[in-house]
Structures are given as structure tokens and as C-alpha cells.
Amino acid sequence: MNPFKKLLESSEKHFTESGRFHSLEPLFDTIKTIFLFPSPRNKQVPFVRDNLDLKRYMSFVLLSLIPVLIFGIYNTGFQAGLARGETYTVFRSFLTGSRYVLPIILVTYGVGFFWETLFASLRNHKISEGLLVTGLLFPLTLPATIPLWQVALGISFGVVIGKEVFGGTGRNILNPALTGRAFLFFSYPLSMSGDVWVAAKTTVDGVSSATALSIMAPEGERLATLLSDSGFTLSNLFFGFVPGSIGETSALCCLLGAAFLIITRIANFRIIIGGIAGLILTATIFYLIPGGSHTWSDAGPLYHLCAGGFLFGISFMATDPVSAPGTNPGRWIFGGLIGFLTVTIRVVNPAFVEGAMLAILFMNVFASLLDHIVIKYTASKRIPNV
Fold first, then answer.
1. Which residue ranges make up each domain of the chain?
2. Do 140 and 65 contact (CB within 8 A), yes or no?
3. CA gap 23, 316 in Å, rounded
4. What is the rounded CA–CA span in Å between residue 254 and residue 241?
5. pLDDT tens across 124-182, in order?
6. How far apart are CA 52 and CA 151, in angstroms?
7. How many CA atoms, within 13 angstroms, populate the side-chain half-sphere of residue 72?
């Protein structure tokens, strides 16, 4: 028998209702789940041959984030080399990127599990596996050299205010990871948007580098031309070799993750496709309006699609089943309005260059209303009983 498994099983009696450490039972259950992945089985009828429980759901989401995470680590180191005027090897890029990305992830999980354990102990219930996903999503929305104390503040706000005050996983109306990012965005805007800190070992901890969404063309010039001249070509934006938050730069990796979630039926395709369609349609309308300005109105739909965190948000955050609608028509509308609001915010209010974050949070608030309207409409079309 696995010695660690034997140790946990022999210690389990101390964390039961009659044990000395009963108040720490949620923490013990979490450690057992992480290291042993227990799979309780029915010993009498009825038998369930297959089911999608919360652990399996969260595992699939984590798997879908692996391409985004790996590339995010690599691109952090790659951008660090460019900031120093060098071209790092793949190994050195991963090594440099790991120095900045892994501490952010460790702080996120450490602080997040502290709050989860505290609330689970106070409420006498198990620690939810939801933090496993939130703890990886949240770091991927941050710049590489954000101070770790800001990371701790952000995940604390996301877990406590975004989820626990509503009762925990399954009861929150806002996506916790995005709620934490929004808190940091409005509290520490210089660290979160516009010119981001790119990890580079220079005389300081990092150097400032503009992201694609922070670029505005002078009057009379086309934004697409300026973006291309600044290195933000469509190919660079699609593959992700540009400065930005850790997980948002590669449109390709986000699409791979979205495809995996759709194929495994973890994410509802209506939200993702509806969001992309809404963004492309809205961006095309702005692009075709005569007298294009120096804002993102004349960038074109492909730039809107690949730049910023839209694909990351629509793939991994908007599809959160708790904060998204549960009806199929509501999901189409939900996704379409996220795409519409993302472009509108970028064009109308350039002060908030990342419109995807605000668009998703705004639509989270109205998700229940969309379901209510759809259900009411469907009920009104039923033939009354005679």
C-alpha cells in the first residue's frame, strides 16, 4: 500500500466528528483529494456507471488551461529577453518565465486555500474544488511582475467577496477570478493595464512595455497600420508573441482550450460561438462606419478578436456554469452581448482598454434575468390545458 495513503487513512479518525481535529476536517479532505483523488463507489444498487461530478469537471477545466499556462510561462521569459535586447533560447525563456509566474500561482493557491479552509470550517462543510480552477485562472489574468502582495489582495477579494459572501461555490453570481482581477484593475490600474511590466533582469525588476490595446493612432492614421508597425501583427497576436497578461496573449492556445471544453461538453458552445459572433459583428459595424477615428473603431474584427483577453475570457470565464445562464437561448444572448459590449467599451471608452473583463462581469449580473425572460417566454407559448 502507498505509505502516504496508509498515513492518511490512519489519521482520518482524528478528523471525524469525534476526533480531536474535527474543525480541520475540510482541510484534511482537501489534502486527501489532491494527493489520492478518491473516487467513492456505490456498494449497492442503484449503480451509476458514469457521471460528471465536480472533481471531474474541475479536472477537465484545468487540463484545458495547460496550453495557456505553458505558453504563458514561455512568453514571459521570451518577452524578458526582448526587453533586454536578447533572444532567449526556449529553455532559458521557460526558466525566466517560471521565476515570475510560479510564485504568483503559489501565492494564489496559498491565500485562496486559507480563505476556503476558514469558511469551510466555520460552515462545517467540505472545501470546494472550485478554487483549483480559480487559483489557476486568476494568475493567468495578471501581468508577470505584479507584486505578490497585490496577488494576495486580489485573490482574497475574489474568493471572499466574489464567492463566499454568497454562500460559496454554486451560489456566486460573479466569476471569482474575474472579480479579483477587477478589484486589482480599479485599485492598482498602473500595474494592470496599458503599459504592463514585462519581466526582465535589468537594474530594476522589469521594464514597461505597451500592450496592443493601449495603442492609439494619431488623428488621420489607421490603427491597424500602427499596430502592425509596433509589432502587433495579426500573426503575432494569434500565436501570442506579444506583451500582455500571462495567459491572454495567445489566441491559438485559448482556442485550443475552448475546443477541448466544447468537445468534452464541459463548456457550452453557444456562449463561446455567440460571443465570437457578437464581437465580429459589432467590430465590423464600427469598422464600416465612415470617418474612422484613432480609437479601436477602425481596428477591424480580427484585431478585436485576437488582441487583449477576449478569447481567454469567453472560453474559460464566461462559460462558468454558475455565473452563466442555464437556458440555451439565454446562452446565445449572453455570449452575443459579451462580444457586443467588449467592442463597445473598447471603442467608446478607451480608458478601459480591456472591455472583455467588464463585459463578462456585467453580463454575469444579468444571467439570471436572461433565464427568467426565456422561461417566461417559453411558458407563454404553451397551449393552455383545456
1. 6-36, 54-374
2. yes
3. 34
4. 14
5. 777 777 788 899 999 999 998 899 999 999 999 999 998 888 887 778 889 999 999 99
6. 32
7. 29
